[in-house]
Amino acid sequence: MAERETWATRVGFVLAAVGSAVGLGNIWRFPFQVGENGGAAFLVVYLVFVGVVGLSVLLAELVVGRSARQSPVEAFAELAQGVWEHLGWLFVATAFILLSYYTVVAGWIARYAVEGMRSGYPSSVEAADAQFAAAATGVDAVVFHGMFMAATVVVVGLGLRCGVELAAKVTLPVLVVLLVALAVYVSDMSGAETAYSYYLSPDFGEVAANWKEILPAAAGQAFFTLSLGMGVMITYASYIEKDEKIVRDGAAIVALDSFIAVLVGLIVFPILFTAGMPPAEPGHGAVFVSLASAFGSVPMGGGLGTVFFATVVLAALLSTVGLMEVVVSHILDYEGVERTVAAGGVGLTLFVVGIPAASSLVVVDFYDLFVNRVLLVVGALLLSVYVGWRLSNEAAGVVSRGTGGFDGFGRLWLWTLRVPVILVLVVVLGFGVADYVGLVQDIAETFVSP
Ligand code: PHE
Q1: Phi and psi dihedrals of 159, rounded to 5?
Q2: pLDDT, tens only, 154-169
């Protein structure tokens, strides 16, 4: 087996992990989750989730990666016994499926960025609908999906330090500067005041009344946004040196990812409110339609939209890089092939597997709900059971060392993972499976009905 690569710097590791975490989840999914689930009330529940459940599971992934120093499949094979040995396969499979359609959606966004530069965005919803249909189906969608996959292959192929780490170090600061500039710019818009009160003053009566929707949505969003349940964090942690402080790193990853999600809300809602668009438009396509037509109706919308969609493209690229690294690192650990060949082969296969998603929105929904509501939660649940109850004291020891020897924190984390996190995940999985079955039934009915 070839000598395992390591990160050049600890900051490089944190930035790469943040780069994986910040992606379509923060910029595309987050605002419409907030919109669908009642605004500020959702934001509060979500932040609590990310801070407690998200951080606990993130630390579990970091512990596994750092202890084994191997990609997920090999990590579980080495650390675990019995059926647990095979857990890594679930992560690699989930990463594979997610990546196959994530690049499709990222491709739509790349096209929106180009479109904004070329011709701006239409202000009417009908025209925005047509624009979305053109971006999301047909040859163009496949071409943009292919280009995005190719860019991912290039970064991963360049290696851990010169590709993944460098890309994160360069891209993230640019992303933050652009987003802060956009948030400041839109704060002057006429709808900004209303948007802020919608987004920032929670009504807890709303949480109590709608907890059945809000809770699973907040949990799903928390896992997705932190790239959990897919082995990305295990893989990235497998490249760090033994002595690193993982609790501080984990907290930094959660804090930066949440900061960017909240910042995006401060951009999207003022624009939507100024354009008079409803913030609660559900669904994957609708968010493109309402955002694009909102950009089409505000002053300087073409330029703003281009910058906004371009930042999304950058963020998405760092996420696809993380996902591909899960699959590639497995091949490198196991098969001993060249990194460039592994990345190229994985990219080509995924391009082909993603073509149905690039051809139909229904397929994207079908994959997305399956990954988010089922696979990702199953992955996080099994990981928590394994780390909490099997690896248990050994894991707590790693976490305690990660705090500089504060034993109390390791125990607190272990018990959080063992009981509350597992209970929450079981409940969330129940809701998720029900949602998914509902979607499959809807799709079946559409095909059966004349
Ligand atoms: N965290 C990424 C986002 O928010 C998505 C992702 C999930 C990436 C899982 C990698 C693994 O868009």
Answers
A1: 110, 175
A2: 999 999 999 999 999 9
